Amino acid sequence: PTPPEDFFGRDDIVLTLANLFIGNDQRRIAILGAGGLGKTSIALHLLHHEIVAHRFKGREFFVGCDGVTSADGLASLILKILEALASASGNVINTLHVALAGALPTLLVLDNFESTWDAQGNHNAVRELLKKVASVKSVSVIITMRATDPPTEIRWSWSETIPPLSPTSAKYVFLAVHGPLPSGSNSDDEILDGLLKELDYVPLAIHLLAQVSRGFELAFMLKQWRGRQTQMLRLEAGMRTLDRLESVDVSISLSIESLDIKRNPGAIQLLGMLCLLPDGLFRWQERLEAIEKTFETATPDLFLLRKFALVYTARDKLGVLSPIRHYVLRYHPPDSQHAQCIY
């Protein structure tokens, strides 16, 4: 895929990662974070960077893991993208290993790897697949993943959670997609600054806001946002089903599905509780101990929310990004007993 043109505030990350590919050492990179932060965009810009292109000479492959829920399915998809023949009777993971081991230096980007990693099923097989791929020293791997921590089965060269954009970069994104504001309009400029802040500078939310705002005054869009929140951050698709890049709600729902709220009802309740606090939960460690006196699973529930990057910590604050917060309060609000416990 072609990297997006409207790409601001991430050049330093891309350059840092590209420089890792100077030389011939194998690299294993994990680009982590909540949905909508631009992990895929970073991976695509890295994939097309001149340093990477010079290193792998056309053997850079992008593998979208959406909907791939098994190790065999992912191995088969990679073989197909590599245009390598799969054995009719052999183990497809071993076949992939042999194909990679016999090839020139290769870069694999496994995008949205959580779709396969967190799928209900044979997790051991997915773990084995990742280890097999990483064991080939001529193969470098980049994963993007809705998570706070990468799989621990292999040693990563670089692994970080991507933050939201800076206010300045967020404004660049909006104006690049929307077009310039009326010249000399201080009120529009102030409204835009406020809107971007209310979105917590999440790139996908800003991109969609800019598209749906075309032709409307920003004061009107601010009222729409405060009334409809994430429901307005979607494109019109007619009868076609929206994907995760066309709707903030669709993007967030994928993370909620990974949480598996039927098996983990306490986790969605804790998330709902945290979403009641726009400014976050301060002194969260001692507050969590107090909450745990009433709800015993609060700490393991928090670990689960953190695993799927549905919450973040900043010093003594535990918070939820604005789009996730509004989505959860609309579709998964906490019950009254849990809600009372947070205050």
Automatic annotation (TrEMBL):
Pfam families: nSTAND1. InterPro entries: nSTAND1, P-loop_NTPase. Residues 7-147 form the Novel STAND NTPase domain. Gene3D superfamilies: P-loop containing nucleotide triphosphate hydrolases (3.40.50.300). PANTHER family: HTH-TYPE TRANSCRIPTIONAL REGULATOR RV0890C-RELATED, REGULATOR-RELATED. This is Novel STAND NTPase 1 domain-containing protein. The lineage of its organism: Eukaryota, Fungi, Dikarya, Basidiomycota, Agaricomycotina.
